[in-house]
Amino acid sequence: MTAATHSSLFPQVPESADAVLDGLDPEQREVAMALHGPVCVLAGAGTGKTRAITHRIAYGVRAGILQPASVLAVTFTNRAAGEMRGRLRQLGAGGVQARTFHSAALRQLQYFWPKAVGGDLPRLLERKVQLVAEAAARCRIRLDRNELRDVTSEIEWSKVTQTVPADYPAVVAKTQRDAPRDPAEISQIYAMYEQLKRDRSLIDFEDVLLLTVAILQDRHDIADHVRRQYQHFVVDEYQDVSPLQQRLLDLWLGDRDTLCVVGDASQTIYSFTGATPDHLLNFRTRHPNATVVKLVRDYRSTPQVVHLANGLLGQARGRAAEHRLELVSQREPGPEPVYTEYADEPAEAEGTARRIRDLIAAGVPAGEIAVLYRVNSQSEVYEQALADAGVPYQLRGAERFFERAEVREAGIALRGAARAGGNDSLLDDAEGLPAEVRAVLSTKGWTTEPPAGSGAVRDRWESLAALVRLAEDFEQAKPGATLSDLVAELDERAAAQHAPTVQGVTLASLHSAKGLEWDAVFLVGLNEGMMPITYAKTDEQIEEERRLLYVGVTRARFHLSLSWSLSRSPGGRAGRRPSRFLNGLRPGSVALGTRGAAGGGGIERGPGPVAKRGRRGPARCRVCGKTLTDAGEMKLMRCDDCPSDMDEALYERLRDWRAVRAKEIGQPTYCVFTDKTLMAIAEAVPGSAGELAGISGVGARKLDRFGTAVLAICAGETVEEGLGEAVDEV
Questions:
Q1: From CA 165, how far away is CA 159, in angstroms rounded?
Q2: Which residues are registered as beta bridge partners of 522?
Q3: Phi/psi zone of residue 250: left (φ > 0), alpha (ψ -120 to 50 degrees), beta?
Q4: Per-residue pLDDT band at 237 (split at 50, 70, 90)
Q5: Which residues are within 8 A (CB) of 107 and not within 5 positions of it... i.e. 6 or more apart?
Q6: Percent of the chain predicted with pLDDT > 90
Q7: Partners of 42 in the beta sheet?
Q8: How many CB atoms lie within 10 A of CB 266?
Q9: pLDDT at residue number 214
Q10: Residue whose C-alpha is closest to residue 46's, from 373, 519, 542, 583
Q11: Nearest partner of 563 among 347, 370, 348, judged by Cα
């Protein structure tokens, strides 16, 4: 993937409404031209959903169908809202409001509070953890750091699902929610937290939505005012809407249907915050006349990455899986995803750092590489490994680019130099805009070479270097641009939160990577217990974990690496197993619930797992490809030390059945089947007599004697003692 061109960084505003439609594919164009009535856009990962909806808004504005001030586009993060504002500005629709739900609600609450309630709006509580801790202490309940975070999350979930403190225990029981503490205790803390807020005239972010909903419900004059202001609504990431946000959206709409929603049920990964895909999946039921457009052309990822993503969802279950979109890559072929097993976590981090260093040496920019993990605590070992390898990195989740101290300082310095013009001695020897910017920022810590190592000094340099690169791109896109022009561009970007790229490998959790993309992605720590996470117990929770991995896979444009380790620390017991979600996708593995050979729904490399009888040539390990010589390994068609995909519960059922059959015929258990043969059966899970016969150790005679019982056990059926034909003496 090549770097963005100057024309894509600073595109020319389209000359006309029709020009806005140029470059859209047929489905995106259909979205852009569907300006009336309810519209539902089902958009798979990488299919250009933001492009489609921003062009829809811009086309409507430029064609005179939509008034900019009458459109409200809402999404879930400041970054996404900023990107939307930036794109709309570039398309000539800069007057459109693009905000998060909370930002839009807070703006309305601040405006209408004096009229609806009187007085000043209570102060907004930026972080509620400290107040939750005080509430717990007043209830004489001790919470450690992790419990405090979890209880705070429970309070947030309760509020967005409109659950009051007194109802919390009953709702937990009804929904089978896994509460982090006794629900009665959480209810008590929640009630005290609300009391402390009232006593101190504070509101939190959830209150912003709740109070806006309350005012719009109770004051019809205010609701009418808002509805006159906003005539058309666009909701991005609609699968992440909570019941409270949906209620607010309904109040904004009133009895109108001028709504366009965009989402993908397969990317629902925030249910713990109250998000639910039900509103997206039920959209056609609520709006029978809705226009529905599916975007499945994937412009982000190679066919190899898309194939893996489709295979991952192909094994999914549940309602969201029933509505999954089969992506079709529009890119040239690339490398196959790489699967790597490591002895321990430090070895996995060091191996990942080496591969990243090699990619950078091969020309992949550090800013186009990401390491994604399940929980933030996994980042430390990768920070150390990258620092040891001399690779720059940035942690996702730090403060926004334009809010960083060094960026604010740089902006002040550039603005001062622009005002001084030729009177600033710093610019005496600088020719051209980039040289002027480099001269100014050199006083703030920018140097031609980055500082060694990592940490705050390196982070500061990376921020300033991003501004230098932006100036270089700006000058090439707009020859003759002045320092004042650049300052104006920075001001507009800051308002839109349209940040330049910082050149460092991104370290991020899978949740925080949503909506982002990179040329190369490393998905690390893909072990059972981490993916899916150990506390995911129910089928719904397991499926959300699968969707989280799907989001991670679809962040990659070209290079994709998936890895796991067999133990936590060097020398530890190698008892870990790779994630069940990779079964049937990684080489040599079998998908759970499938029959026969591996790879039924995803990428398969190397020789197949089953060696047919009479086949000529050496037997090879179906995992690593090594030639097998040991008889036991040849039965399994893998090396003893290669990872097993055995269904352990099935293996134990087969052992129990074998013990009963051996006793019935008065022979040792190995005369029925050896342990290795049972292991091979439990790994292959045959679904037919032919598949069972293909397993080494199952001859025609044993197939005839025991095949019916074995196949029944593999199918999950109960086998009565004595099932099968009379057994000859062995």
A1: 9
A2: 371, 561
A3: alpha
A4: very high
A5: 99
A6: 36
A7: 263, 294
A8: 27
A9: 94
A10: 519
A11: 348
CA-CA-CA-CA torsion sign (646, 647, 653, 657): negative
Two tokens, residue 513: 């990577």
Task: Name the burial class of residue 254, with classes exposed (0-12), middle (13-18) and buried (19+) by CB atoms within 10 angstroms of its CB.
Answer: middle
Handedness of CA 275, 280, 282, 287 (dihedral sign): positive
Provide CB contacts within 8 A for 613, sequence distance 6+. Answer: 693, 694
User: Minimal CA–CA distance to 577: which of 638, 678, 646, 521?
Assistant: 646
> Buried (b) or exposed (e) across 88-120, using 16+ Cβ within 10 A?
bbbbbbbebbbbbbbbbbbebbeebbeebeeee
pTM score of the predicted model: 0.66
Q: How many CA atoms lie within 13 A of 690 on its CB side?
A: 3
Cis bond leading into 333, ω under 30°?
Answer: no
Structure tokens that stand for 647 in this block: 């269904």
Radius of gyration of the chain (CA): 30
H helices present in 219-344, as ranges: 220-229, 243-253, 278-281, 283-286, 303-314, 319-322
Contact by Cβ (8 Å): 691, 600: no
Long-range Cβ contacts of 437-445 (<8 Å, 24+ apart): 437/467, 437/468, 437/471, 437/483, 437/486, 438/468, 438/471, 440/410, 440/413, 440/414, 441/410, 441/413, 441/414, 441/467, 441/468, 443/413, 444/406, 444/409, 444/410, 444/413, 445/406
Geometric angle at alpha carbon 158, from 120 and 187, rounded to 5°: 100
**3-state DSSP call for residue 533?**
strand
DSSP letter string over 483-495?
A: HHHHHHHHHHHHH
Q: Could you give the strand order of the β-sheet that contains 97-100, starting from the edge strand earlier in sequence?
A: 97-100, 71-75, 232-235, 259-263, 39-43, 291-295
Structure confidence at residue 144 (pLDDT):
79
Which of the four pLDDT bands, split at 50, 70 and 90, describes residue 595?
very low
Asked if 220 and 254 touch (Cβ cutoff 8 Å), the reply is no
Q: Which residues, other chains included, contact 707 with Cβ-Cβ below 8 Å and sequence gap of 6+?
A: 689, 692, 693, 698
CA 87/CA 52 separation, integer angstroms: 11
Segment 74-113, tens digit of pLDDT: 998 888 888 888 888 888 888 888 999 999 999 999 999 9
Residue 48 pLDDT greater than 70, yes or no = yes
Nearest by Cα to 99 from 81, 85, 86: 81
Cα–Cα separations (whole angstroms), residue 301 to 259, 340, 485: 30, 21, 36
3-state secondary structure at position 202: strand
